[in-house]
Amino acid sequence: MGKIYITTAIPYVNGAPHVGHAMDYLLADVSSRYQKMLGNEVRFQAGTDEHGNKIFQKAKELGIPVQEYVDQNAKKFQDFIKKLNVEYTDFVRTTDKEHEKRAGEIWKKLKDHIYLSKYEGWYCSGCERFITKKEYEENHGICPDHQKPYEKLEEENYYLKISDFKADIRDAIESGQMLILPEFREKEILKLLDESPDVSISRPKSQLTWGVPVPDDDTQVMYVWVDALANYITALGYPEKDISDFWPAYAQFVGKDILRFHAIIWPAMLMALGLPLPKTLVSHGMILSNGQKMSKSIGNVIDPLEVLDKHGVEAFRYFFLRHIDTFADSDFTWEKYEDAYNNELANDLGNLVQRLATLCHKNNFKLQSPKIELDPEYQKLMNEFRFKDAFDFVWEKVQNVNKKIDDDKPWSLAKNGEVKKLEEALKNEVESLLFCNQMLKPFLPSTTDKIAKIFVDPITPPESPLFPKTK
Ligand code: MSP
After folding, report:
1. Rounded distance, CA 326 to CA 208, Å?
2. Rounded CA gap, 136 and 122, in Å?
3. 118 and 156 Cβ atoms separated by less than 8 Å
4. Rounded to whole angstroms, how far apart are CA atoms 427 and 39?
5. Residue 28, ligand 1, Cβ within 6 A
6. Is the pLDDT of residue 344 over 90?
């Protein structure tokens, strides 16, 4: 039995969770449940990123004290994760006093690779980000996401010397010591690495107050990444605790938009701290809404609570783990959601359970507890983090059980009194279903629990369908 650490990106709390935030949690949860199924002990971190001007401004606009505002929103994220039936073990809020103290200690340990310098250039307050000259020119001076002109900025910042680590980061990626998935993103990162400048990791207090103070310089406050990335190890108690039981992480789940920070700044920080790099960075795509990026101004933001209310958490997990690609951008539409629920979850699986349990019950079929193993192909896909493919693989087997029943026609065998053949057919069908059920566990934890309880002696069909059809 091994010890395994799995992490998720910590969302900004300048609003309520949206459907896109579910991806990190769901993918990490599948990974974690699968590892637990294999007998490993898992620590699973989640959290919230609570500092920065955007959050500060939002609270001010609403006339709420900032701490109160972040408390409210952090709670929304915690409730959301629970609703998704995600089994996390640790939750870091970057405003936790423990985290802030540890982030300060980490800063001090990075000191040899930090220098003070003057920044003169462009900035987008909407993105809370410095803009390179190239980006400024490409966008003709206007932020495409916020439709606001970039601001000219001149200020002193501390910088982290990425240049000290570039060669070692490249080696770690190329040698597979730190795997980046999917592979085409690894290539993008390697390209980006060469042109990566040193990164600004602080801002003057006059520009940013809501953040962790920089140790030994009360004019500066930490800016975004050192504070945020540190959460993955402060969650384990670094620096005062020995974290080697769980660190390096087995897998860190992030969206493609923040992969570069995790694949460049984060390894640089870890190398400076003398810590090993995560074994795998898994980057997922974006969820689009009707083919477009979700945005409040377009009015196409999908509220995850509405989706959850519609058909419950298992349908939510089903759709986002099977119809949203693990690695590429994918589209959510209500139509697709309804179709997947009715045609697949209710039809392929719900109906199958109902009719097979009814057949077993009617014919007094006695189940010998079968020995269930995992399919090697499924294990391969799961080990490669190809969760959608693994889910597809099992679903095809679910559909095959349906076909098998259609072919075997147990009702005719019963009618003709072919007892032995009937026994054999039901045994095969139930065993095939339980084989699928075992592999579906990480994806659909409550449904698979229910199915496992139905198919024990005496097999009794559920009183109501597992997934009532809506059309
Ligand atoms: N606070 C930073 C992360 C710091 S991690 C040390 C951040 N927050 S975020 O709220 O913008 O994003 C949090 C996670 O949600 C990221 O992994 C991001 O990719 C993911 N998503 C945000 N919108 C998304 C979609 N529309 N679709 C899929 N994932 C999305 O970045």
Report:
1. 36
2. 7
3. yes
4. 28
5. no
6. yes
